[in-house]
Amino acid sequence: MSYLPLTDPFILRFSKDGIDYEAKVIYAKSTDCCKHFFDVTIQKPEGIKSFHLKEKPTSGPGSENMIWIDENDQVKMFYQVLGYEIEQYMRKNLGILLIDAPVADQEVDHMRDKEND
């Protein structure tokens, strides 16, 4: 899928089940339609095929929690860990808050305080 990058590539490092991962992530917009997504390349460990993770978590059937899914609507536990890491990076380093990501009450209060200034 061709896309226009919306951010510079960023590297995320995290562990799951005792395995260390390194992912190169680009927040992007499709040039074919108006979808936004994350282009993900797992650099370590080798052998994991690149994929696109949807822009934000969605409500899953039979689940009260928001879940991360790929471009084929596949759900994997790995995507949940990666999605959390992406959400944290976007918020802390780029100032981008993914709307459907849970926000702690104190963060909402802090944002309200800034709006009232």
Descriptive account of the structure:
With 117 residues, this protein is α+β, with helices and mostly antiparallel strands. 26% of the residues lie in helices and 33% in strands. The chain is built from two helices and seven strands. The protein has helices at residues 77-94, 105-116, and strands spanning 3-5, 10-16, 19-30, 36-44, 51-54, 58-59, 66-67. Strands 1, 2, 3, 4 and 5 form a five-stranded antiparallel sheet that branches. The protein has a two-stranded antiparallel ribbon with strand order 6-7. Strand 4 (36-44) and strand 5 form a beta hairpin. The chain is globular and about 40 Å long. Mean pLDDT is 83; it is low at 101-117.
Question: Top keywords for this entry?
Answer:
two-stranded antiparallel ribbon, 5-stranded antiparallel β-sheet, alpha+beta, disordered C terminus, 117 residues
